[in-house]
Amino acid sequence: MTDIQTVALLNELIRVCIDSAHGFQTAAGAMQSFDLKQALEEFSQERQRFAEELQALVAGLGGEAAGGGSLSGMLQTGWFNLKTLVAGHDVSEVVVQCERGEEAAANAYQAALREELPLAVRPVIARQYEEVDKVLQRLRTTEMASARL
User: Fold this and answer.
1) Percent with pLDDT over 90 in the chain
2) Is 90 exceeded by the pLDDT of residue 35?
3) How far is the C-alpha of 31 from the C-alpha of 59, rounded, in Å?
4) Over the stretch 94-112, which tens digit does the pLDDT of each residue have?
5) Number of C-beta neighbours around residue 144 at 10 A
6) Residue 56 pLDDT > 60, yes or no?
7) 71: Cα within 13 Å, side-chain hemisphere
8) Within 10 Å of residue 119's Cβ, how many Cβ atoms?
9) What is each CA distance from 86 to 6, 18, 143, in whole angstroms?
10) Which segments of the chain does DSSP mark as H helices, in order?
11) Above 60 in pLDDT, residue 78?
């Protein structure tokens, strides 16, 4: 994989992370449960840190890092519908949208890991994917799913 291809792939993951950070922050605003609100805010902060880490990798490759998410990304991941659900305070649907967003993020990371990545990039993406997958599993747990009731 060339540096240009690697930068493009990293920029796509940056957009995914930024979309996720915004989505989780929006979802946190709809939560009455302190624990659920706090967890979603932590997920948002983690995605922001991931984006910053990926932006540093892009800079190290001499590329220009993406600085924001994308409307198409938000539409594809399901985060776009979140604002409507938050306005209606439909907690169960907000959690479902969070799961969909994380599924899309996990898919993006899996696709990236199928590529022949530079040695300095692969471990970062692999570690971030593991964390994305943990959040996805946590969203699916009984504790988080209780918000659906």
Assistant:
1) 58
2) no
3) 37
4) 788 888 889 999 999 999 9
5) 20
6) yes
7) 0
8) 6
9) 36, 19, 20
10) 3-28, 34-60, 71-77, 82-87, 91-113, 122-140, 142-145
11) no
Amino acid symbol at 65: A
64 CB contacts (<8 Å, ≥6 apart)? Answer: 7, 58
Whole-angstrom distance, CA of residue 10 vs CA of residue 85 = 30
User: 100 is written with which tokens?
Assistant: 């969909």
Class of domain 3-141: mainly alpha
Show the CA angle centred on residue 96, arms to residues 136 and 46, nearest 5°.
40
Q: Where are the domains of the chain?
A: 3-141
Task: Give CA–CA dist 51/142, Å, rounded.
Answer: 29
Q: Is residue 61's pLDDT more than 60?
A: yes
Q: DSSP letter string over 62-83?
A: T-PPP-S--HHHHHHHTGGGHH
Tell the residue number behind the tokens 């840190």, with chain if given. Answer: 49
Report the distance separating Cα 74 and Cα 104, nearest Å: 10
Asked whether the predicted pLDDT for residue 86 surpasses 60, the reply is no
* Contact criterion met (CB below 8 Å) for 51 and 22: no
